[in-house]
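Good morning,

Both structures are done.
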Amino acid sequence: MTASTAVVSSRPSFYSIVPNRDRADDLFRSYIAFLEERNGDLFADDGFAHREAMMDTLGEHDAIYRGGFDNAVFNRNYVKLQDTDLSDEQLALLAFVKMNAGEAYGVEVMSEARADLMARPEPLYVLERVLGREENYHTKMLVGAADHFDGIEVEGAWRPAWPLKLLIFALAKFPPSMFHPILLGAEISGVFTMNWMLGRLSTMFPDDPGVRESMEHRIIEVLIDEVGHVAYNRICVGTAGMRAAKVLARGVSKSHDDLTPELNVLGYAEARKGLASFDYADLPEEVRRKAWFA
């Protein structure tokens, strides 16, 4: 099996226990090999070479949303959603930058809280350190969507809502037996939300398809990474942890009422009922083909 070949069972599922968990280190090493192929040198001080090239490619998308978005209106709603006459496209941008802010907050807090663990040499912790660096790229991918909206500068003081603070506190303070089930639930919810947003984008930007394609590209690249993050955490949990993760995924999904209300205006509140049946097979073929999954 080459590093670029996804590790899958005959019926891959987010909620099935990984077979041969006694071979966890072998699976982790397989994942590290995949990440080296996807990202380049995982420990270079100046970032992942392949990922930097990806960011350059994303930056070459120069389409501009012709519907316009006043910068003051954007920043007012970035601090707190309050206007009721925003277009779907404007709401999508706000969702992107707020998801970016949430990712950035989580990465910063977790990096500080788990610095000693992530410095350890075991494959489990090596991977945790690498995946944290991938999350940093996600923030750049998402906030980069603002480049397609002429005159937009992110200026508002974003503050994490209490559900995110609670989640990150739990991840930072709880022991490993609880850390991975909590993170798995959050990752599954994140994959569901991103996948839903990808589908929702297909109806937007009818006059600016280049903007839509760029935003879709960004989400697809994040999804490819996040599927691997789900797989990593699945290797780390047992049956009880998997049950807890499924419950936690629902809770994290509901937290978007406070974290990203733009999603609910776009229809997410109703759509999240589908989380109960959502699974690996519901992802786009491109994501399943390019992602690592065990």
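Second structure follows.
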Amino acid sequence: MNIDFIENKIGEIIKELEKEVMEVLMDESLDKKQTNLHMKPITSTKKILENAIESIKMVDKLGREELEK
């Protein structure tokens, strides 16, 4: 499994999410409540992606350890 490739692609997605965050934060037409409502899905998505890459790395590591036995 090409972990570096997967990690790079997830990194690209996270960078796009960060751009969305900046757009929301810079939108002066939104009040605090609206800003928070826009931020929650972006923040959740980023956390899910970070957890996914950690899970993929763990599975890969365990798989390699099993092959070594």
